């Protein structure tokens, strides 16, 4: 259904996420070969983030950046860790100049009231913003499309937009057609979980097309559309998220665009400060978990040592009745806990390092904003 | 000793690797505050790669890229996996323009004859090359310094140099002073393993300073020096590797430098083909390991199911003597194998994905080289 629609619409560029199976990608590639002769599939993590790009323009080069944090491997029911969420950049031969659109996905939000993944998503938003800043220095136009898993007013999206100067196609569009408020996760899509959307009767907007002109170009979003639940003439939708489609008008004209930072500095200082606070909260939680898993590993080791001592004593006092079965079971239990706790301790050590690194970078960003406004 | 030497020499820029402990970094920072007022420490992995930068110029921004493959967590005796090897980029305010030097380290080579880590190091060399290409598009001058763990003639370094156009300061230097052939791992350093250097009586050169001018600048290496074993007036060396020190003359002058690719295309095609072959060898090895760990997990699961069935039968036929101890031990053994094999299977799945991704990118690079020379 998605392939039919893409073939029919004949876009210049398609950025897809969550194409989990490479088989699906190959099928799409075969189906779309006529109108989108160039495509790329980004591989990452165990399952992959399912990022792929179909383009009418030749793909010259690609770059994948995997976020350093992406949830927890033991949260099997969420599974984000296994996807290796990332941002994929492609360089397209667009006329005589390169165009570098990015496709990306961030960690999902499973509970808005008590969002345990907020610090990870903020690290990802920051890494995404830094990736875009550093790779787009020679670009004329920056395009970012994807499932950011953030509401428009969330600190992560304000950080991303403020730090990169990217503009939101929905807010800038001259014409809009689609779901109310541009929502992309709506209650009357049969694949969405209705209870999660109860506080948001219209749905939420978490899929974005962002853009900016860097050098002497201007970009204007002439039209933005979303799909609206079911596919035309069918009773099932294309996907659990609504697709976002933008018509962008790119002109070589006008003044050189404004510098690196798009929004007014004082607001940006507030946003970076807010993000730093949230990352700090995550850092302290990660430090607590690192401590408690480390303690558990030490306790398991002590239990093993105690057992070894008792076992030796029992061996010396031969002839005494000795509960072999429960003794061995306990030893195996202790070994299991030791291995598990050590693994978790290593994982939370990495988490602490990355959160510390991001907090320091945010501190550096604040200093730069204040010293070189 | 390192701090004293750096303070005495008064360089513009210092790129360090393997500063494992943050405490050591803090000590260096305190000691060097006077001559290098700006510094940054990059955090990654469990231990960290120990990358840090000391600079006379203000640091405006930083970016860390962790390689997607870096050895195996179960190779505890090598431990590279725990370091999260990476490349760190800093943006310096260099006069009125930014200068972006990178500090990096690649996976170590433990056995040259049977180098199991070659595919991983090639993936890293390729990711490093891509990272430099994509982040240096607006730079005037690119500088890369680090422990690349590759001999000058190795395919990885030829790929990195060919694909980025970086030049080797040792080969270009007008004057050279230091260890013969510019070696940085030499037998008469008391920290090196003498047996590993037996085939190389002079030592090997695995630490590099690479550079290129991108826009209308020229860079010339006027002098290159290495330390030579022991520190002056002492009987111990600064480190197990010799330090590399370059005096670079950067001038705004001359023609715009040559394009993206530095060496002649036909050679580069050969290098990329060679790298692709090696990555392909690694891919097939990883696929075999993924298969065998998956099979082991399935066998462990079957053993557990068999035990559960036997246990139920034994429970039905009560009164029979039943070997509880060996039965429980076997069950715990099977659970242990199941968990371990599943973990390894996931790890090798990620390895296969990343090797496939790199192989495809190298194929795309070959096509680009052939179509757009």
TrEMBL record, chains A, B:
It is found in: Membrane. Residues 2-241 form the Endonuclease/exonuclease/phosphatase domain. The chain crosses the membrane at residues 297-319, 325-347. Its EC number is 3.1.4.12. It comes from the Eukaryota. One of its GO terms (cellular component) is membrane. Keywords: Hydrolase, Lipid metabolism, Magnesium, Membrane, Metal-binding, Sphingolipid metabolism, Transmembrane, Transmembrane helix. Signal peptide: none annotated. One of its GO terms (molecular function) is sphingomyelin phosphodiesterase activity. Pathway: Sphingolipid metabolism; Lipid metabolism; sphingolipid metabolism. It is a multi-pass membrane protein. Coiled coil: none annotated. One of its GO terms (biological process) is sphingolipid metabolic process. Belongs to the neutral sphingomyelinase family. This is sphingomyelin phosphodiesterase. It comes from Aptenodytes forsteri (Emperor penguin). The lineage of its organism: Eukaryota, Metazoa, Chordata, Craniata, Vertebrata.
């Amino acid at each position: 259904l998605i392939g039919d629609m893409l073939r029919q619409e004949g876009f210049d560029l398609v950025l897809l996420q969550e194409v989990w199976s490479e088989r699906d990608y190959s099928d799409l590639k075969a189906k779309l070969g006529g109108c989108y002769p160039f495509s790329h599939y980004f591989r990452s993590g165990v399952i992959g983030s399912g990022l792929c790009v179909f383009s009418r323009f030749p793909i010259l080069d690609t770059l994948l950046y995997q976020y350093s944090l992406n949830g927890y491997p033991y949260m099997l029911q969420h599974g984000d860790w296994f996807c290796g969420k990332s941002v994929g950049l492609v360089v397209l031969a667009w006329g005589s100049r390169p165009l570098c659109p990015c496709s990306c996905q961030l960690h999902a939000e499973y509970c808005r009231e008590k969002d345990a993944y907020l610090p990870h998503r903020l690290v990802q938003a920051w890494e995404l913003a830094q990736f875009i800043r550093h790779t787009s220095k020679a670009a004329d136009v920056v395009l970012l499309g994807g499932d950011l898993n953030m509401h428009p007013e969330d600190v992560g999206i304000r950080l991303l937009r403020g730090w990169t100067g990217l503009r939101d196609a929905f807010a800038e569009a001259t014409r809009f057609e689609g779901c109310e408020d541009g929502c992309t996760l709506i209650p009357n899509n049969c694949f969405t979980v209705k209870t999660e959307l109860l506080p948001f009767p219209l749905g939420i907007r978490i899929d974005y097309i962002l853009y900016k002109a860097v050098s002497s170009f201007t970009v204007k979003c002439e039209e933005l559309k979303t799909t609206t639940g079911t596919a035309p003439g069918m009773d099932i939708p294309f996907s659990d998220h609504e697709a976002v489609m933008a018509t962008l008008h790119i002109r070589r004209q006008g003044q050189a665009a404004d510098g690196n930072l798009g929004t007014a500095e004082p607001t940006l200082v507030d946003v970076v400060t807010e993000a730093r606070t949230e990352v700090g909260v995550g850092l302290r939680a990660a430090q607590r978990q690192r401590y408690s898993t480390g303690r558990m590993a030490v306790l398991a080791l002590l239990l093993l040592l105690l057992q070894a001592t008792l076992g030796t004593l029992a061996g010396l006092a031969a002839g005494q009745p000795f509960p072999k079965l429960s003794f061995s079971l306990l030893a195996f239990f202790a070994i299991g806990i030791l291995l598990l706790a050590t693994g978790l301790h290593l994982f939370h050590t990495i988490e602490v390092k990355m959160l510390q690194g991001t907090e320091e970078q945010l501190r550096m960003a604040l200093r730069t904003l204040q010293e070189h406004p």
